[in-house]
Amino acid sequence: METKAKRLRNQRNSYSDDARSSAEKRDTIQSQGREVKDQINERMEEQKSIRDTAKQHRDRRDEIQTRIRELIGKSKGKRDDDRNSRSAVVELAEVESGISNIEDRIMTDGRLSLDKENKLLKQLKSLKSRRNQLMPEVEENSIIKLDLKDLDGSILTLKAEADSEHNLMLEAHKKADEIWEEIKPLFEERDFLRSEGDRYHAIFVSSRRAADEVHATLVDLYSEVDEIKNVLKEQEQDQKKSIEEYNREAKRSLNTPSESEEMANDLANLLISSGSITLGGTGVSEGRAKKGSLSDKRAGRRKIKARRGR
Question: Structure pTM?
Answer without folding.
Answer: 0.48
